[in-house]
Structure formats: structure tokens, C-alpha cells
Design brief:
The strands form two sheets. The protein has a three-stranded antiparallel β-sheet with strand order 3-4-5, with no helix packed on it. By secondary structure, it is α+β, with helices and mostly antiparallel strands.
């Protein structure tokens, strides 16, 4: 019979991203300023789980208007 693994919920990036990892995993060398979190099994040398988040600012204009503006700036 397979052994049950307890999972813990992790929430990062101010709650923008949540996921489950095994209870015994450790957070390692995470850097919130560089938008990177890393998790690993205890004593693991490889196979780390790395989480990154890339975001963009929303521009409130139609895509065609944006393309026209970019084209006008570049000419």
C-alpha cells in the first residue's frame, strides 16, 4: 500500500499564486525581490521546485491603437 504524503499550501507573491508542496520540503534561497521562490526535499542536491512570476502593467487601449502609436513613434 502506498504511503500518504501530507501536503501544505504555500501562497507567494502577496497571494497571487498558491500551490501545494510536500510537508517536509524546505524553502531555500528564495528571493522575493527577484520574484523567485525555491523549494526542495530535505538534503536534496537536485530536482528543486522553482517558482517565478512575471507580470505586466495593463494598458487600457485597444491593441490596434497601441500598434498605431508604436508605429508612429518608430517612424
Amino acid at each position: 500500500m502506498a504511503e500518504s504524503i501530507r501536503l501544505d499550501e504555500v501562497s507567494v507573491f502577496g497571494g497571487k499564486l498558491s500551490f501545494l508542496i510536500p510537508h517536509d520540503w524546505e524553502e531555500d534561497d528564495s528571493d522575493a525581490e527577484s520574484n523567485t521562490y525555491m523549494y526542495r526535499r530535505p538534503n536534496a542536491d537536485s530536482g528543486w521546485f522553482r517558482v517565478s512570476l512575471n507580470t505586466a502593467t495593463v494598458i487600457h487601449e485597444r491593441p490596434t491603437d497601441r500598434l498605431k502609436r508604436i508605429w508612429l513613434i518608430s517612424t
